[in-house]
Design a protein that fits this description.
about 90 residues, alpha+beta, five-stranded mixed sheet, about 25% helix
């Protein structure tokens, strides 16, 4: 389970430090037992983010049944995908 407070704190830390491997490593230290990964937001389809930040979105992961899948339920969330939102250039 991930709480709304944890989600907010994770977003704050990500906004302060930027989204990169170092930030994800730091989050793994702060939240042991929680799965973290990162990717581009374009890699995620058909799912609304649990939280939108400046330049990134957070998605919840449910890993209870041996395969990871995205969820919108904080009660079953076991991890978070931090997804970088790239600015569009026209």
């Amino acid at each position: 389970m991930i709480t709304q407070r944890q989600l907010t704190d994770i977003a704050r830390l990500t906004a302060d430090q930027g989204l990169d491997h170092t930030t994800v490593s730091r989050l793994r230290q702060v939240y042991p037992g929680t799965y973290f990964t990162y990717c581009l937001d374009d890699d995620i389809n058909d799912m609304e983010p649990a939280l939108e930040g400046a330049g990134f979105n957070l998605y919840l992961v449910d890993g209870r049944q041996h395969c990871l899948r995205l969820t919108d339920d904080l009660q079953v969330a076991t991890g978070i995908v931090l997804a970088a939102v790239l600015e569009e250039t026209n």
